Amino acid sequence: MVLENIIFPELIRSPQYQSILFVGCAWYTLHYPNLFKTKNFTTLEIDPSQRCFGAMQHIIDSCEQLERYFQPGQLDCIVFNGVYGFGLDDPNDVDRTFLAMHHMLRDQGLLVFGRNDLPQHSPCDLDVIPSIAYFSPVIFDPLGCSEYSSDPTNRHVFQFLANQATTSNTSPENTGPELEA
To answer: What is the rounded CA–CA span in Å between residue 66 and residue 48?
Structure first.
């Protein structure tokens, strides 16, 4: 309800979000491309069988591989909802994913990060993921906050994060060995 009735209308209405990537497709995303028909809307899903629920511009790959499909800074917004803890579980993969999203989002581009804040769907401590440091909380005007809990049962949380420009292609404080799981 919050995603479709509050977040999406703001993204559609706002001229600052023209190039949007939606990560994760399933039966309930089938109508999303029609909602974003005035935008450059791309979907990404690792499972080829879910392609039928994506946009005409659809990518079958992992979110760690965004550089294969986009130029640095090409995206204005990434909606990354229901992926973390539902397949994206390894801390190293999470770090590489956030780093890839950082590189493909423009400076101050918006990352809408939706996740269930339950132990079984929180595979790692996000505070220890180095590439998350490239993002800063930002107030999402229609909700008046940078983090919104939308579902008490699943403890679904939306975080609104602004991409921060960097001059380096390495993740912060992570130029050495991989994270420990």
So the answer is: 16
User: Which residue, 100, 101, 112, is CA-closest to 32?
Assistant: 112
Relative to beta strand 156-163, strand 135-137 is antiparallel
Tokens of 165: 């420009």
Contact between residue 158 and residue 7 where contact means Cβ atoms under 8 Å apart:
yes
Sign of CA dihedral 9, 14, 19, 23: negative
Burial profile 70-93: b = 16 or more Cβ within 10 angstroms, e = fewer:
beeebbbbbbbbbbbbeebeebbb
Domains assigned to the chain: 18-44+74-163 (3.40.50.150)
The answer to whether 37 and 66 have CB atoms below 8 angstroms apart is no
Taking alpha carbons only, the member of 127, 123, 115 closest to residue 160 is: 115
Round to whole Å and give the CA distance between 155 and 174. Answer: 30
CB 67 within 8 A of CB 30: no
Q: How far out from the chain centre does Cα 58 lie?
A: 15
Q: Which 3-state string (H, E, C) describes 14-30?
A: CCCCCEEEEECCCHHHC
Q: pTM of this prediction?
A: 0.87
Quick check: 32 and 55 in contact, CB under 8 A? yes
pLDDT digits (tens, 9 = 90+) for 97-143: 999 999 999 999 999 998 887 656 567 777 888 999 999 999 999 99
